[in-house]
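Model: You mentioned two targets. I'll fold them one after the other.
Researcher: Yes, keep them separate.
Model: Target one:
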Amino acid sequence: MKKFIILAVAALALAGLAGWYWKAHGRGAEPEGLTLQGNVDIREVNLGFRVGGKIAEVDRDEGDAVRAGEVVARLDGEPYRREAEEGRAQAASLRARLQLLEAGNRPQEIAQARAVVREREVTCANAQRVFKRQEELFASKTVSVQERDDAEASYREAEARHKSASEQLALLEAGFRAEEIAQAKADLGRAEAALASAELRLADTVLVAPSDGVVITRAQEPGAIVQAGSTVLTVSLTRPVWVRAYIAESSLGRIYPGMKVRVYTDSRPDKPYFGQVGYISPRAEFTPKNVETPELRTSLVYRLRVVVTNSDEGLRQGMPVTVSWPKPSSI
């Protein structure tokens, strides 16, 4: 019994020791006393029109806040509106032609062709009777050869005209060929694609902010002629705000993505920002000159990105900050 108690106590002691070691040295432990220097890294975007033209208005100035989807500038859209109108008219014309081909000929046209066929059929039958009489009279030598030949010619002509009218009726009743309809569809598709491109160019005369931010540069003024892609406004994005920092290889194992940190600035050392490690570079590099820790200048370091979760206007592009990992109880 005493031996069993001793073994149980020993097992509990080993379990406690293992738990302490995992807490102190395991991956989930927060490192204490680790402080890094870094700089605020705020993304900027150069806003420009996808088409060229004359600037009609610029609605924002330097320092103005913008919201995602807000209109910040416009081009004179009249040339593009006319291009779109022309495209719509062309597409409408080809659409009507396609509908005509698919519908076939009008019933009135077919009825008219049938009437012509009947008329020429009667004419042909009469010419045939005249020709037969002339042949009978010619056999009895009552009419001349010329008269018989004229009657035959009239009959053959009437017969040919009747055949021509019948063929025309057959064409009208059959409608248009499948190849003609396919070509009309292709022409309409090409016109609709050109119209879509024209409408897209018209829409591109309106410049909108892609996300929330602050205008830091107004590069163009109303009346200026700009090329496609020329910068009109430069916007500093409100989100996301990152801190770019570097960590030595010897401390690399003490951090991991998702680890919570605090970010301090010189202007408010008693009110830290909160964030978490979002990215750790897999590649080592030489310490940049702007890293302010002298002992790291000759070392290989790894770049990491800290995403600030409660950023405000107090964080500016390039501002030096301190990133620290306090005790777990103080986070």
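Model: Target two:
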Amino acid sequence: MIIFRTRKNRNDKIALFVNYLKKENKDLKTAQRDREVEATKSRIVKELKRLKIKKYFDTPVLEPLTVQRKLKDGTAKDVNSFQVQINKKSDVIKADKLLYGVCVFVSNHTEKQGRGFKVKPQSIIKAYREKTKIGDVFKNVKSFLKLRPFFVNTEAHVKAVYTICILAYFINRYLANQRKSTGERDYLNSRELYAPLKDIDSATLEDSRTGHVFKKAVKLPARTKALLEKLSLQQVVIDPQK
């Protein structure tokens, strides 16, 4: 087991949650239907657990909010919503600072050999660090791919799953590095990495006479187009007939 704490890692996660909460409150202010207390609270707690920073925050407090929604017939309807407030546990954060920079390797290899241990500390440290690199890759992949358990039992299937995951990881890391190189923050494990690209779309068209099907790119929003140019990327639409 390896135990390691860094200030940057924790602060980055707290910053991600703060941004998430701002967006959540913005959505709640424009709710189109009544929001449930427990469902809203559960969603907030789930995000804290995902980021593994739940211990740094108190239980979310939901302040009732009435949103007026205008219906198609011109009448107004009251929608029950909330604004979420959540306080940081300053004492827990302060206590955690004592572990910053501490890296501890705990092993059950206690066999003795001569005056020392049979398994050298250097070997244990090297093995865990190599294992951590692999673990970080799969953690990153799971942060942007919705993966379910794969039940495969042939060599070809195993290689296919492995190849898909590795290719997805390289594409994700490349895009994160590209955005970071332009002066933006590190989006590697963030859901916001692909947010500006969600408006990229294409329309599928079919010629009723020939049956030829092709796709045509929809005009990009200015913000998305500017980002693609900044990253030296371009929208490519592949003709399924070719």
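Researcher: Noted. Anything on target two?
Model: The beta strands are 2-4, 61-70, 76-85, 103-105, 112-113, 116-117, 202-206, 213-217.
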